[in-house]
Amino acid sequence: MPTLHVALQEGFVSDRVVITLNGAEIASRPAVTTRNQIGFAESVEVEAPAGAAEIHVDVPTRGLSASAQVKVEGMTTYVGVSIADGRLNLHQQREAFRYL
Known about the structure:
Layout: E1 3-8, E2 15-21, E3 24-32, E4 42-47, E5 51-59, E6 64-72, E7 76-84, E8 87-93
């Protein structure tokens, strides 16, 4: 089964984060903080069935939430989550994220 890799990236400061995949909770973190030097806070990896899936991220400490349709394919699918300009942004890419 493929792996879904969700990277919590820019803009988090002691934020509670809840992530669901197709309606099932896959992660709940009480205090996520971005390491500004590298633009990364933490990541979550779960096995996911291949094909279309809906990922939903809630950041209740900021009153933010966002959903995205992703296509789980190959060995690993990567989704990045960031907070910028008061919005929660999700984006998918085929390759692993690079951090310095």
